[in-house]
């Protein structure tokens, strides 16, 4: 039985298909290490137990070389998959600035996890007035939303302003 992806009429089918493709490519890029390990274990098992096809019957030196080749291939395939996902992503290529902002925030978070100085990040957030600008954006959104959403957006904006004032006073 054929299964169809539900697409709102305002979004083209090609954009939906490209979003699905981006999801699959990103999942494949994340799973490349698992697939690499499975291939290495399978090749090692086939060589050690002398089972499977003839091409899988490797000597210890050939097996070592094959495992390194698998690792090298994985290191080449991962950036290729993520690059392809970025290239076909309709949200990045169709002018969506918020997706780019989200990507940049994720990159900053990754930098912090990799050892970036949190003080430098806070200084840059203050210098760029990010909390204040987000608060203004939330206020503008609150003006155009239903009442229950408006209250939540205004509370979020107030919290962002409090954060902006607290970090400004720490300078």
What does this structure look like?
The protein has 171 residues and is an all-alpha fold. It has two domains: 1-98; 109-171, no CATH class. Helices cover 78% and strands 0% of the residues. The protein contains seven helices and no strands. The protein has helices spanning 13-49, 60-88, 90-93, 97-113, 118-127, 130-143, 147-169. α1 (13-49) packs antiparallel against α2 and α6 runs antiparallel to α7. The longest helix is centred in the N-terminal third of the chain and has 37 residues, at 13-49. It is elongated, with a radius of gyration of 24 Å. It starts with 12 loop residues before the first helix and ends with a helix. Residues 1-5 have low confidence and may be disordered.
SSE order in H/E notation? HHHHHHH
Helix content: over 70%
What is the overall silhouette? Answer: elongated
Summed up, the domain count is 2
Rg over CA atoms, rounded to whole Å, is 24 Å
Calculate the terminal CA-CA distance, rounded to whole Å: 63 Å
Helices, by number, come to: 7
Write down the oligomeric state. Answer: single chain
> Main beta sheet: strand number and arrangement?
none
Mean pLDDT: 83
Given helix and strand content, the structural type is mainly alpha
Total number of strands: 0
- Per DSSP, what share of the residues sits in E-state strands of 2 or more residues? under 5%
| Spans where pLDDT lies below 50 across 5 or more residues | 1-5
Keywords: Membrane, Transmembrane, Transmembrane helix
Transmembrane segments: 20-43, 55-74
